[in-house]
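User: Show me a protein chain along with its predicted structure.
Assistant: Here is one chain, sequence first, then structure tokens.
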Amino acid sequence: MFTLEPFTPTDCDRLIGWVPDARFLLQWAGPAYTFPLTREQLARTLAHTQQHPPAHLMFKLCETPGGRVLGHIELMGLNPVERRAHIGRVLIDPAARGRGLGTELMTLLIRHAFGPLGLETLTLSVFSFNTPALACYERLGFVTVEKLPPRTFENETWDLLRMQLTKPTY
């Protein structure tokens, strides 16, 4: 049984260990962080989760309640008036990939967002070359709604897609 639990400062070192280089960091987190990822950078993000009401939530995927941590996910731009938020920074422990945990993590977050949080619309952004993530999101019902301006890393150009899922279509 997997659970979605709040991300805490004690989880920072584990998450940092899952980010091997600058290219991966940009793919995972966008331009919000710089490599190497540090506790201080994560602490700034965690501070946003302490606002009332919070506009940002950080979670970890645990194998059992309080058990081994297998993933990370964030809900950003929480807007209770418009009943929407943006999913971001989805990451599975490199040693646990290929087991469907991304789908498990996303499912738990979607249920939390559409259930207790009372949201109606979820969006996310994904690079078009990230085919495992795209397949996961499409299986869960997300549809591409917009092609965003491309991002660049060194001499590469990455196409960025915005996807959306609404409660009635889930």
